[in-house]
Each structure stands twice: as C-alpha cells, then as structure tokens.
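Box 4.2: Ligand-aware structure prediction
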Amino acid sequence: MRTAEKNILISSFVSTVSNGFERFELHPALIRGIRGIGFENPWRIQQETIPAGRAGRDVLGLAQTGTGKTAAFALPLLDRLLKVRRPAPRALVLAPTRELANQIAAEIRTLAKFTRLKTLTVYGGVSTRNQINSLRRHPEIIVGCPGRVLDLLGQRVLHLGYVETLVLDEADHMFDMGFLPDIRKILAAMPERRQNLLFSATMPREIRRLADDLLTDPHVIELAGTAPVATVDHGLYMVGEGRKRVLLEHLLTGDDCDSAIVFTRTKYRARRLANQLSRDGHRAVGLQGSMSQAQRDRAMRGFRARRFNILVATDIAARGIDVSGVSHVINFDVPNTPEAYIHRIGRTGRAEREGIACTFVTGIDRGWVQATERMIGAPIPRRKVVGFEPDVAERPRRPRRPYGHNARGMRPGGGSPNRGRNSNSSGRRRRSYRKRIA
Ligand code: AMP
C-alpha cells in the first residue's frame, strides 16, 4: 500500500475513535491535534474555559500549575483564529519566564499542528534579530515575556493593533517579578475591544486590581487555590544545615527516585550544589538566572530528554515548567514564601501522576513552616530519617517570632512586597542568617 493511502486509512480510523473533546465542537483540525497530543478527556479547567473562551468571554482562571490550563486557553483561542482570516498578530500570550513561554508555544504548536497558524516566542537573553525576522512572517500568535514584547514595541517592529485575544499566564508570578508596569504599557498598545484571559495560581491584591481593570464580566474558574497538588506526597525533614548534603544524597539514591528537581535559595548555591553532585557521579545540571539563555535551554533540554535526572534550580524553575515524570521535588532550602512552596512542589505529581516532595527544614525555618501550614490549612507531615536530626547548636537560642522570616513567612531579601517595612531588623537578620549558612 502506498504511504498516502495508508495515511488516509489511518486518519479515517482515528476520526472514528471518540474523544471527550468532541463535545466542544472545536475545528476538526484541532480535534486531530488533540488526538495527536494524546488527550482523551478534558480536565476541569478545560471543561469550563473552552466553552466560555469559544463564546468570546473573558476568563479568570485561579488554577495551580499542572491543571491543564495551557490547553484550556489555547484551544478556544486557536478555534476562534480558525473561524476567520484577519491581519496578524491576533493573539498575545504573556508569561513570566522564557522557559514557560517556550513550553506554552510548544503546546500551542502541537495542538495547531494540522492548521496553518504560526506561533512565535519572543523573550530576552537572546538576540532580537531572529525574532524580528520571524515577525516578518506574520505569526498569528505571539508568546512572550513582557520585557522583550515591550522592547519590540519600542523598536516599532511589533504591532499589536490587531490583537483580538490577550492571555496573561502566571499573572501572580509576573507581578512578583516586577512586570506589572510593563504589562500595563503593553495593554495600552492593544485595541480596547478584545478578549482577555487571566490565569493566576494566587490572587494578591495587585492581581485582583489588574483583573478588575482588565476583565469584563469574566467567567471565573477556581481550582483549589492554595492546596498542594493532590497527587503529591509532601513532608518536612528536620535537618541541620551541615547535614543537608548527606540527606540529599540519601534521598537521591533511594529506589523510588527516578528524577528530581532540587531547589536552592540562591543562584550561587544552585551552581555549587549542581557541581558537587556532578563531581559525585550524579547526572545533575543547574538552572539559575545568571546562566545565559543558551545554557538554560541546554539544561532544560537535557533534563527533559533525561540526559540529566537531577535539575538543581532556583525559583526560576518553580512555576509553569512542565516536565513529566519528575518523581521528587527536594527543597534543599525552604522557599521565600508559602505560595512559592505550592509552586515548587507542583513540579512533581503532574498530569495526575504521583510525586514526592521533601523539604529540608533547619531550626531557623520554623517561622516559614508555621506560615505555610497556616496558608495550606493543614500540617505538613514530618518525616524522620535516623541520623539527620537538626543540630542543637543550630536552633536559635530565643524563640523570636519570625526566625529569619517576617509574619507572612517570607525570608529577608526574598523579594516580598513587605520588604523594607522593618528594614532595620530585617537587615540585621539577613546578615546573621548569611553568617549561619556561610
Ligand atoms: P499545564 O497545566 O497546561 O502545564 O498542563 C500540565 C500537563 O498536563 C501538560 O503536560 C499537558 O500536556 C497535560 N494535559 C493537559 N490537559 C490534558 C488532558 N486533558 N489530558 C491529558 N493530559 C493533559
């Protein structure tokens, strides 16, 4: 049989297999894309967002990572673009990090594989030349980070006058990264009449204000805002700072550990730990903000392709990044905020698979534990490994409240909006904390 005939046979067979997405009456090319990617049934955020998005409504999605929100906004967006031909770019998706922008664009391209729609990613850290050349091919969808989008607008090589749909993904993370002023400038370059979809795992006051300004009568979908992913078995390990490295080795060499993301507090600690693990014979790679874009891409590609099974990262990798089959998230250092904890542990237990999250807690992290348990509304189980109890000497002598954190459980220097409110004491605490971990 000739290949063309075989393909016709295969595609007519595939189109008879029923798929839970058919009920949305999406364009047939998208149904083929959905089959190609292997989705059988829509997840909850998709069940709610797709009909509202197709009907042209604004959407506010309060959803943690791993819930399927990319397809939830991409499918109605693509479906609307396929209905009529209009000048491009017609859709703009803003995301906080380059890794997330790449991931969103990859999923959109897979879903749109059987259409002629083009998607372009634009972000900083790489030359603008290729991005400007690609813009000349009139991609319908731009996925980008706010800084570079603004830069291209300023250079007058990107025009957003025809944008029909705007998606803000991980809006709370964009706020944390200080992108809100850039986003507001980008909004001013777009037509006022457009569809807006805003997704955020948490709803700080600033994002609520942005949502109020941006969204008109939105369809609101809230998926258990601050609950840890149900498929993640998470626990705290009380350990002295000096024993963290040995405990990490113990967990990484356990039978159940296939691949792990290890989070550290600083870029320096991520780089140093990745080097130490590699020297000790692990297939480890670092991912932190002082690496070049090419190095970051290489690290992510290597981790996705399983050339490395340990990614040692700062919070740059805490959100949005979707790598299937990460069995463990290990918080070598506790995150800056309780919210960041939810994001970090959401890197495992993805796509309804089970995952394990281990957090190393030293004596000075007790304030963070209290704040995080308060936010989750439940205690996080304590796990014990004999020989890894905290050093008595490491506990603060007096039970001072924040133990190196402010009342929200944020570490000094952690980029919290509260930073500076009690700068004297936090400055002092920061120095003593640094001394402690030096
Ligand atoms: P997201 O929250 O968009 O990062 O999606 C998390 C992961 O779930 C990604 O790997 C998606 O490809 C996958 N996914 C999304 N929707 C579905 C679905 N309906 N069925 C199976 N996998 C899905």
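In the box above, the bound molecule is adenosine monophosphate. Residues 1-17, 392-438 have pLDDT under 50 and may be disordered.
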